[in-house]
Amino acid sequence: MINMVGRVVVGADGSESSTRAIECAAHEALLRGIPLRIVHAVIWSMVDTPMDLAAMGVPREDLREAAKVILGAAEEKARFAAPEIEISTHMEIASPAQALLTEGEDADLIVVGNRGHGGFTGLLVGSTAVQVTAHATCPVLVVRPDVPREDPGGPIVVGVDGSPEGRLALRFAVAEAALRNASVRVVHALPEGFPPEEGADALAAAERLLDTALLEVDTGGKQVPVSAEIVRAEPAEALVDASRTASMVAVGGRGRGGFRGLLFGSVSHALIHHAECPVAVARAEADEKE
Fold first, then answer.
1. 76, 80, 87, 192 — which has fewest CB within 10 A?
2. 276 and 195: one domain?
């Protein structure tokens, strides 16, 4: 990460997706040599608390006990995945988004699953996703339960479009590659279908964009192989296809051109549901930690 002095935060709700996220978060904490914080959110008044106990009239104390069981199981999973790391757990009486945002204020990374239940239902398809991605002060890593553990030898793919967020994503990708001894593959999506009189200009502009992006790469003196390419495809198709051989796909919190509306439109949904590796969303606020 840009500044490795905080911790990794992950949400736990007992789901398969949450379990995968916890294992991945433990691995990320181990890579960085920082603690792991496991958070479980409890909302007394809502029916999507763990196992719908509130809707069934179960006393609040029993909800606390259920939360302890979920956190205990999560901690066990994390210790099995990375015995060397420091682990702490916390039950937050708050919405899932607020729990993650509060615990993630001094974090290097928030890790979430792309699906869940209980305290983290709909994390990436509803209001919780919007709040976390809009207000997190650190990058967010999204993992899927049905995707095998990332291949440490695969490149980190980063989508760039000339925006400040795209440049931030590139810096994030290079830092992550240095951490993992991986390479970086920079991708700019250029859809087909330009009129003949515009096609050459669009291609030339894309080439200049990539040249500029490569000139801005700072490896910090570390050996990080970086390659770049223009992919003639829609953004979602380009990144999902690239994810098949990647260890991670990194994108900016917002973008323009080939990656406009990344977090709130079809591209984000395509990556979350179809990417074959974890997806990292670099936040602009991360610059404040440099």
1. 192
2. yes
